[in-house]
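Regression test case RT-17, inverse folding.

Input:
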């Protein structure tokens, strides 16, 4: 039962992202900001840092600014710009907080390191919004070569369906809900009560299989993209499971929720950059 809040936080976060991506950017912005809030409240407590209120505020503000920036920019090149800015200023403000606290304070190094990690997690959550807004779709190569050769046609006409929001609200292909679905499946695999030597590879295999399986059924996505996306999500979840079991379940409920929400937030950056790298 002590790990139940961790799993529920991850499942609810991923499911909320999937539903919000079907509704639109504004709804996804609200969900991402809420996800950042969960991480911001519990992360300083999890890392055992001091000055928790001020550092939670910094972690939350950095994530919100990054998310809002991804939602309002008008150029594709700027979708992740505010995440970079928020990350830089967030880390800077963390150091400023430590300076203002004065010398001789206990655990200053651990506090700084933990808060900076929280800033990284919340600012990368904006990748979910950037991924939804990014003009997805593979450009057909003139000679049929390249990545487009790996495209598979699904068994269901995706144009007439909105299952899992694979067809986005703007009519373009959206991979955000697919990625969130992969994280849900991977989270369920991470809950298997067995040794890490068995469960960690299982998480990666199940996440990859679910991503590729949906792509085969739905079509339009490439097998390369689906495979990379599934592996990335699986490795991320496996890493957090390993971290959680090595450290043990956090004592406080907010810390447990933060551990569950953190990999879901961090997956946003992987979704966006996978799109940028593999989608023309």
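Golden output:
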């Amino acid at each position: 039962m002590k790990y139940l809040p961790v799993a529920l936080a991850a499942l609810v976060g991923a499911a909320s992202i999937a539903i919000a991506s079907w509704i639109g950017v504004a709804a996804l912005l609200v969900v991402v900001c809420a996800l950042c809030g969960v991480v911001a409240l519990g992360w300083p407590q999890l890392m055992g840092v001091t000055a928790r209120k001020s550092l939670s505020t910094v972690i939350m503000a950095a994530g919100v600014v990054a998310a809002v920036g991804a939602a309002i920019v008008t150029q594709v090149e700027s979708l992740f710009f505010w995440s970079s800015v928020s990350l830089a200023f967030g880390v800077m403000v963390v150091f400023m907080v430590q300076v203002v606290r004065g010398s001789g304070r206990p655990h200053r190094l651990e506090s700084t390191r933990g808060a900076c990690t929280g800033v990284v997690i919340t600012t990368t959550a904006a990748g979910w919004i950037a991924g939804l807004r990014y003009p997805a779709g593979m450009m057909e190569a003139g000679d049929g070569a390249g990545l487009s050769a790996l495209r598979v046609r699904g068994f269901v006409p995706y144009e007439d369906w909105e299952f899992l929001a694979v067809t986005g609200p703007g009519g373009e292909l959206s991979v955000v809900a697919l990625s969130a679905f992969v994280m849900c499946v991977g989270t369920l695999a991470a809950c298997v009560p067995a040794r890490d030597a068995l469960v960690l590879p299982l998480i990666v295999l199940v996440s990859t299989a679910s991503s590729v399986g949906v792509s085969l059924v739905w079509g339009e996505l490439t097998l390369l993209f689906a495979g990379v996306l599934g592996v990335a999500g699986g490795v991320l979840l496996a890493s957090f499971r390993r971290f959680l079991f090595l450290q043990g379940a956090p004592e406080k409920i907010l810390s447990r929720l933060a551990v569950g929400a953190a990999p879901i937030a961090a997956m946003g950056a992987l979704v966006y950059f996978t799109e940028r790298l593999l989608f023309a």
